[in-house]
Amino acid sequence: MTPPLRLRILIRRFHPVVGGMERQALQLAIRLADRGVAPSVWTRRILPDSPLFDRVEGIPVRRFGPAGSGRLGEYGSLPRLAWALRREAAISADDPDVLAVFGTGDLALVAAGAAQQHGIPWLMRPATEGDVSRYLDPALAPGGDPLRRWLRGHLPPSIWRGRRLRSASTSVAISPGIAAELATWGFDATRIRELPNGVDLERFRPADAARKADLRQRLGLPVDAPIVLFLGRLVRRKGLLELAEAWRRLGAAGTLPDRSVMVLAGSGEGQADRVDGDLDALLADDRSVRRPGAVSAPEDWLAAADIFVLPSHAEGLPNAFLEAMSAGLPILASDIAVHRQLADEGSAALLHPVRDTTALADCLARLLGDRDLRDRLGREARTLAVTHYGLNAVADRWADLLLRLAWERGDADGSAYRRAAESRPRS
């Protein structure tokens, strides 16, 4: 059998340092491997003990140093990655048929140059709404650390950077808000594809009472008390300081049901706006809050919980939200565009105004006190997940997009298309 279409994924960080986009990239790569595509991942080497060449759940991974989670590690790795792509084009028979950037920024500039040299198509998938705007308009970018400010002042002009980003064969928008942002910055509307994140409907499924009780025992949680769960990066933009203050207020007012527990699962490692220290100060004496750190089996924590909460200030299309929907949990989330989209304008989640601690506390108290409301929201969420966001269906759409790119833009003789088509499973 001829080899499949070769996809190279470029991403700023990857396993074992993960967030929503990294988990999505891995799960998508695994499923594309069953659909006539041979994915590989190139990324930064954040942890010094991570091997340079690796496999993660069967997907080849190559990491570029220097190691470190700061900006020096990030910008230091870019020249090495760019040089490796250039050298590969010159000497390797295994150079990719398509490049895919998960994110934007300087990594996308590297991909644009490599794709031009290879004569192959490339695509860009912004992580969140605002990513492209912050990169192309320095006035919108956060202040950041001194190295970032210096580099921003010495980067090529925004006009040139915008032209390079717009050279992408396709831009994948995981939400309508990102699609609108791309159009605002002059990206060709015919080359913007709306493709949402997907969720594994079997891995993240509703738990019956017996499974929930068993998981709580294994995770060290009370079996017969309400469990509220946050799952994600412990960073300011996730609204965690407002959530911690809302929980503290409910506890001080005696509004929380007996033995209630809030779990904040995740880590702020490698993030400029991490709030681990702030949470330590806010919740130092609160024994009702558990912080297990980054978790390897989020499906277990979701199955053990009663309520999922995500008070983010901004999002792309949050995997944790999708996973909570698939798990059939009632969701309390900030009233931002992507949450309204996912929750079908509020029919499958309770939404509160962004950064409004009082409203967040009131909504949380309402959910904790209304079992019928929790049950209804959970049923609606699961139905929406099954109907619109199954990962296998999303992977099918990605495979079709990659095949079309190889055929239309970077595969004049059709060889990559034929390799992928011959390798694709027959239904």
CATH fold node name of the largest domain = Rossmann fold
Q: Per the principal axes of the C-alpha atoms, what is the gross shape?
A: globular
Would you count the extended β strands for me? 14
Structural class: alpha/beta
Mean pLDDT: 88
Low-confidence segments, ≥5 residues, pLDDT <50? none
Tell me the helix content: 40-55%
Count of helices? 17
CATH superfamily of the largest domain: Glycogen Phosphorylase B
Portion of residues in beta strands equals 15-25%
Query: How far apart, in Å, are the first and last alpha carbons?
Result: 18 Å
Side by side, the strands of the main sheet go 3-4-2-1-5-6-7-8
Total number of domains: 2
Can you tag this structure with a few keywords?
Rossmann fold; 14 strands; 2 domains; 6-stranded parallel β-sheet; alpha/beta
